[in-house]
Specification:
With 365 residues, the protein is an alpha/beta fold. Helix content is 17%, strand content 32%. Strands 15, 16, 18, 19, 21, 23, 25, 26, 28, 29 and 31 form an eleven-stranded parallel beta sheet that branches. It has a seven-stranded mixed beta sheet with strand order 5-4-1-6-11-8-12, with helices on both faces. The chain binds guanosine-5'-diphosphate-alpha-D-mannose and magnesium ion. The site of guanosine-5'-diphosphate-alpha-D-mannose has 25 residues, from β1, β4, α4 and β11.
Amino acid sequence: MSQNMSEVKAVILVGGEGTRLRPLTSSVPKPMVPVLNKPFLQHVFKHLSNHGIRDIILALCYLPDNIQSYFGDGSDFGINLTYVVEDFPLGTAGAVKNVSQYIDSTFLVLNGDVYTDLDLTSMVAFHKEKGAKATIALTPVEDPSAYGVVDADADGRVKRFIEKPKREEAPSNMINAGTYVLEPDVLAHVEPQKFCMFERFLFPLLLETGQAVYAYPSDAYWIDIGTPDNYAKINLDLLSGETQADDSVDVHSSAKITGPVLFGSNCVVEADVVIEGPVVIGSGCIIKSGSFVRRAIIWPDTHLDSWTTIKDCVVGMGCRIEANACVVDGTVLGSDVVIGDSCHLSGGVRIDCGKSIDPDTTLKR
Ligand code: GDD
Ligand code: MG
């Protein structure tokens, strides 16, 4: 029996403050960090609506101001959004229980810090075909120790679920990708308003009680955006094709731009600037003469003075990089940072929002 995807609702889990993404998440909540100049969640919504899923419930630990003001009821984005905020963090399964009044048939749960192009339509069809109570998407990773490892038999039936195993004890490198198809009755095992996790309680319980839990392995694109490296990676991975700039972007004829580069509106690129993609530049950025930018993500309203070098790094909103400064090699700048002239920052240094670094300073982690 095939499932009409427009009847499948999706619950997105949005908890935590994204501490590992600091200083980027000091000024913008994790679900709203810009990916290709749009909030991260917008990409997740797009993926869901591409599969015909329009009813989306955000299960939130707290409601960061700008999520609701940006997305509203979702109608501008072709979706129907419901927000439910917990009084205290309920854990992944507790958070879903907390929205169960909106759920009446087979539904999806997505970890809100993961981006994937997983074929959701096929996954739901697989779930139905197997008559599963729960189907867990799996993805291969190099080091499974930071994730939930799922051990399944040849038919896809899950045998074991081991959350965050030691690397040498992980039975495989196939991990819980943070996308589940569930039947509503699995929530009967979760007590309302009590902390409960799928990974440590509900999935193991379903296995113990002999219920049909299936794994859906796939090699679809998959990334957890929880670290600055992965945050940079998703931007650079999703960026493709030619340079994109609208008419409001003013590029000097002597500037050399090799794509893919994405410009937000109202950017200015002065003479002799060199930009080598993949690079994402937010709206209102000014790049002064002779500067060099390669493999970087720059948030809106940042100014690069003349002869700066910005390479392999993330620069927050409203920063100012003064002349001849060099910001390279995994450096992450929060918003409203000032880097004095001729500074050299490298080796994954992170600078908190609002900090100023004196001219001629060298910082390395
Ligand atoms: N609403 C709500 N309430 N959301 C929560 C809560 C909560 O109390 N706790 C966690 N979440 C959300 C997080 O914001 C995130 O989107 C998702 O649930 C998963 O939680 P993480 O804290 O990011 O877990 P993790 O990354 O360590 O591990 C999870 O994801 C891995 C894949 O990225 C587990 O599901 C692993 O098994 C999995 O491999
Ligand atoms: Mg996570």
